[in-house]
Amino acid sequence: MIMRKNRLKNLLKAYLDLNKLKLVPNSYDLVGHVAILDIPKELKKEKKLIAKVLLETNNHIKTVLQKASKREGEFRTRKYKFLAGKRKTETLHKEYGCIFKLDPTKVYFSPRELTERQRIAEQVKPKETVMVMFAGVGPYPIVIAKKQPEVKKIIAIEINPKAVKYMKENIRINKLSHKIIPIKGDVRDECKEWYGKCDRVVMPLPLGAESFLDLAVKCLKKKGGIIHFYNWGEEPDIFKQAKELVKKTMKKMKKKYKILKSRKVLPYAPRRWKVCLDIKVY
């Protein structure tokens, strides 16, 4: 979850002067018992204080980490600095009745995407076969299976072995072994077995997903289906790049398509957004 806007600033009013307070982030991520802060360098001396205040004012928080890098590498993980509390980063995160066991220092997981996961799950129809590429610890597959219990099956592919281990555990915890097929490996290799077998493909990788878009199309049944394609977009036209990438791929594959919905998902940087295109392929 994300702590509501300005809550962190309010907690620190008694400890920081106005100039310092203006630099405090409006919110922080909460993954299970782990609070994750993005602290600007101007507050380097105050970061321990900020972490201490969080621990003292929120009984659910047991560990406080600071983001120490951007997401990097094939596994989309980032580095963290320990600030306060217990040095235990493995946690249980709850979301809309689903439980996810994970360690945010070892795997990719975004609590900020809970609304987007629900949005996708609400579109899945009974008897559909769904593929989730870059499935991580299983949030999209599990939320889909919980929201649409009549889904036929969900194929969940992930390359990070630590994430796959957590995904298998999460499938067991949420009692969905009869619906979700976890697969460890590279999407480029593993999805070939599912060519022509899927009604829907979810691609929750915003940077580089266009390299896999042709594979997503091949996974759809002969009659076509739906692809949820994620990308980054710059203001003022945040959907321009994603639409051009889709157009280029579909033209190359000689496929007809229609963009059903264009959606802002999350802000990434000033004037830059994570976006999603819901695409109907014929």
Describe the fold and architecture.
- 39% of the residues are buried.
- The longest helix has 14 residues, at 240-253.
- This protein has two domains: 7-89, 2-Layer Sandwich (GMP Synthetase, Chain A, domain 3); 95-281, Vaccinia Virus protein VP39 (Rossmann fold, 3-Layer(aba) Sandwich).
- The protein is α/β, with parallel strands linked by helices.
- It has helices at 7-12, 18-21, 47-57, 114-123, 139-147, 161-173, 187-190, 213-219, 240-253, and strands at 29-31, 34-37, 63-67, 80-85, 91-95, 98-102, 129-132, 153-158, 180-184, 200-203, 225-234, 257-269, 272-281.
- The model has no long low-confidence stretch (mean pLDDT 94).
- Helix content is 28%, strand content 28%.
- Helix 4 (114-123) packs across helix 5.
- The radius of gyration is 20 Å and the shape is globular.
Radius of gyration: 20 Å
| Fraction of residues in H or I helices | 25-40%
What is the straight-line distance between the termini? Answer: 37 Å
What are the low-pLDDT stretches, counting only 5+ consecutive residues below 50?
none
Rounded mean pLDDT score: 94
E-strand count: 13
CATH class of the largest domain equals: Alpha Beta
Write down the overall geometry. globular
Most strands sheet: 7 strands, mixed
Order of strands across the widest beta sheet?
A: 9-8-7-10-11-13-12
Judged by helices, strands and strand pairing, the structural class is alpha/beta
Q: What order do the SSEs take from the amino end to the carboxyl end, as H and E?
A: HHEEHEEEEHEHEHEHEHEHEE
Number of helices: 9
